[in-house]
Amino acid sequence: MTDADGDGVHTVTVDLAEGAFEYKYAVDGFAGQEDLIDDMVNGGTCAPITDYYSYANRQFNVNQDYTLEEESVQNGDFSNSGSWYTNTNWIISGGFAYSTGSSNFNYNGQIINNGSTLAGELYLVTYDIAALTQGSYQVSIGGTQGEIRNAIGTYTEVLRTDYGGAMSIIPLSNAIGGIDNVSAILISNVTSNTNDAYGSCSECLVGCMDPLAWNYDSLAGGDDGSCLYSSDCSNTIPTNLGVNWTTDTKASINWDNMNVGDCRVIKYFTRYRTGGSNS
């Protein structure tokens, strides 16, 4: 882990294989490490890889948990098409396509789906590559391009669109191969369970951890850089002072919110006098 900006927060980014990933937090080469056994014995759920007496490890799905909606790109199975063009949702540009007599088509042009996608949304994109004899393929959806694929296989990617529009699969280096079972499904929700507090099943709360700041959060377990500090506000007098109602012993008054940026009101001193009196 590194602290490139010197703010005391150390971070690291790690590429992990798809699927379930087992982990735990540790420091100084495991000289200090979290013990979640008691949390699990007491009904916790954060460390499901456990025997409840000698070890307890966390686990999360690297693909995350998605809520899938309607399929935005359809008819990606070309097995029943007599020719490419009978599958009306798809067109081919800059090349040719022909049936191999199996469930896919060979082609060296860009295939485009007329189904529309939404701007700024996540999509789960899946497609098969078969009979690849040269080149590679790359999916593009709403202006966002996926990884370049140069081998036979089934590929799944999660991509966020830049704008609404069609999905296409682009041939690279004069690619010739078979594409089949293409789909793009809108993801409506992503659930992540990695917001963990070290050594606890509780959620890691972040906030201002400086007790000198006016928005100090005593419950925060991590500083999010949100601390604000009082400054010289030049004793600004409240503006738009008004009276809601009065009686012989009480009154309700109001004025503008005088908090601006890091200029925060600590207290007001109120002076009053009897009507008709100068003291």
Describe what this molecule looks like in 3D:
By secondary structure, the chain is mostly beta strands. The chain has a domain of 125 residues: Jelly Rolls (Sandwich), CATH 2.60.120. The chain contains one helix and 18 strands. A hairpin with a 4-residue loop joins β17 and β18. It is elongated, with a radius of gyration of 31 Å.
Which structural traits does this protein have?
2% helix; Jelly Rolls; mainly beta; 1 helix; 3-stranded antiparallel β-sheet; 9-stranded antiparallel β-sheet; 279 residues
Largest sheet: 9 strands, antiparallel
Q: Give the helix/strand class.
A: mainly beta
What is the alpha-carbon Rg in Å? 31 Å
Which class of one domain in CATH terms? Mainly Beta
Report the principal-axis shape.
elongated
The total count of strands amounts to 18
CATH topology group of one domain: Jelly Rolls
What amount of the residues lies in strands?
A: 35-45%
**Oligomeric category:** single chain
Mean pLDDT score, rounded? Answer: 78
Low-confidence stretches: 80-88, 96-107
**In which range does the helix fraction lie?**
under 10%
CATH superfamily of one domain: Galactose-binding domain-like
Counted by DSSP, the helix tally is: 1
> Separation of termini?
67 Å
Order of helices and strands: EEEHEEEEEEEEEEEEEEE
The CATH level-2 architecture of one domain is identified as: Sandwich
Compose a concise summary of this entry.
The protein has 279 residues and is an all-beta fold. It is built from 1 helix and 18 strands.
